[in-house]
Amino acid sequence: MIPKFEARSYALTPFIDARNYIGGQWVDASGDEVLPIINPRHGQPMANVRMSTAADVDAAVKAATAAATDWKEWPLRERAHVMYRAREFMLRDIDELSWLVSHENGKIFSEAKAEIDKGIECVEFGCSLPNLAAGTQLEVSRGVRCEVVHAPLGVVAGIVPFNFPFMVPLWMLPQALVGGNAFLLKPSEQVPLSSLELVRIFEEAGLPKGVLSLVQGGRETVEALCDHPGIEAVAFVGSTRVAKLVYGRAAASGKRALCLGGAKNHLIVVPDADPELTADNVVASYTGCAGQRCMAASVMVAVGDVQHIIDAIAKRTAAMKLGDDMGPITTSASVERITAYIDQAEQLGAKVLVDGRRAKPLGAEGGHWVGPTLLDHVTEKMPAAHDEIFGPVLSIVRVDTVEQAIALENRSPYGNASSVYTTSGEVARRVMNEVEAGMCGVNIGVPVPREPFGFGGWNDSLFGHGNITGWDGFLFWTRQRKVTSKWSLQKDATWMS
Ligand code: NAD
Predict the structure, then answer these.
(1) What is the pTM of this model?
(2) Are residues 364 and 313 in the same domain?
(3) Is residue 493 part of a domain?
(4) Do residues 332 and 470 both lie within one domain?
């Protein structure tokens, strides 16, 4: 039984340890390693998590295999009814869920609530599947009928990152579960607590025991999931380095795999852009969730003279209140990485317009803090221009023309998101046609395609085929059975008779 998370403020609040959930039972993982779950605002532990071994994964697969046999017999419509109920419980508990996300990840309460809202939108897509997943049928010759049905794969797994502990699992669960699969979720070991609440809600919504399992852990657990012959498909969201490893390893054992990786998102700003809209939007994009979003702005490509817009961005950045407008960084290791990128860019000649190093909210005694940081005159040679920093740092690179801006962006191996700020339809159209990115925005800094549109990048930001959300997600978690049938002697003989 999961107790209520009682926090209704940022005050340090302990919670229960993260455990595995297998066959409808809460059980301890069997690994030797136990990690503290650190509240990043305080830099203090709020719970622990024990790592799972290959034996734990095997136990979860066995329980899931048994549960999948019955679950796939449920009509798709009834499976979707579980999503309807889960949606209601998520709305009922939204404050509790948001505070838990905020406490384990560090993002401010309003951002955590937005994360739950977006997760609910994904559940709503799951509710709509009975209206979308009817399949097709056609009389292909006299008396012969062909029909296509979407069949489940069996037992499938999802591996998720630290930055959206409640929402990213919901990129996967609605389509996979309504599609008739049993699902093994491997949360990030840095933020495993929200997954306990997800299980509590789906259990209350009537999901049969064993259909959703949790295996807490890290690398060893992920490798066991990739290797296990009883798992048919793996979806992954995280860094590009690990996405490539998981994609290769899962495919090597014959699994279907879709692995979303990291990002280095460019915002192209041209002189005719609306200054207010652009400055507001750029700051929101690079500082939201402390820059720990795969859709966050990371490079601003300043085309020609946009000094007035850069000044407005600097003014807004400097006015932000750390702790209230932007939360801490999730881990202390990330603080070191982010700070090192700023130091290095400065040493290589970038100008630090707003410096978040050593910034802390008033009265903060601990915690993992970096304030929003604006780097100007960054050049392509500097790692800050091409590495994923994954923190509240915007690198401004100056170019003369839109062509140069597009070429610079397209030299990045990543291809998650890209935006242009302009009042010219011609410029907008051109950039949208030519940039190498899967999710593009015009005057929008975080161009997330909302449901029912599918979420997914290009190039080194996604390995596999299709998007993870929307209809593509349903196709990923299901396979098509083609049935051709004839119920009487065919009078007009053809090659099919
Ligand atoms: P990560 O790659 O370090 O970890 C992701 C998952 O992989 C975790 O569950 C972790 O336990 C596991 N893992 C870590 N190292 C592993 C290894 N060596 N072998 C096997 N498994 C391993 O990513 P993160 O730090 O949790 O998340 C941040 C990254 O995720 C950023 O790069 C961000 O851009 C990316 N991200 C991408 C998207 C997207 O939609 N493309 C969305 C969210 C986050």
Answers:
(1) 0.97
(2) yes
(3) no
(4) no
Question: Within this chain, do residues 140 and 55 fall inside the same structural domain, yes or no?
Answer: yes
User: For position 341, which CATH number holds?
Assistant: 3.40.309.10
Position 370 in a domain: yes
Q: What is the per-residue pLDDT across 58-94, written as a single tens digit (0 to 9) for each? A: 999 999 999 999 999 999 999 999 999 999 999 999 9
Question: Does ligand 1 come within 6 angstroms of the Cβ of 262?
Answer: yes
Whether 6 maps to a domain, the answer reads: no
Q: What is the pLDDT of residues 359-410, one digit of tens each?
A: 999 989 899 999 999 999 999 999 999 999 999 999 999 999 999 999 999 9
CA 138–ligand 1 middle distance (angstroms): 43
How many domains would you assign to the chain?
2
Assess whether the C-beta atom of 457 lies below 6 angstroms from ligand 1. yes
Does residue 299 sit in the same domain as residue 231? no
Angle at 450 between CA 457 and CA 409, to 5 degrees: 30
Question: Which residue's CA is the nearest one to ligand 1's atom 42?
Answer: 294
In ligand 1, the atom with minimum distance to the C-alpha of 461 is 41
Say yes or no: 286 and 369 in one domain.
Answer: yes
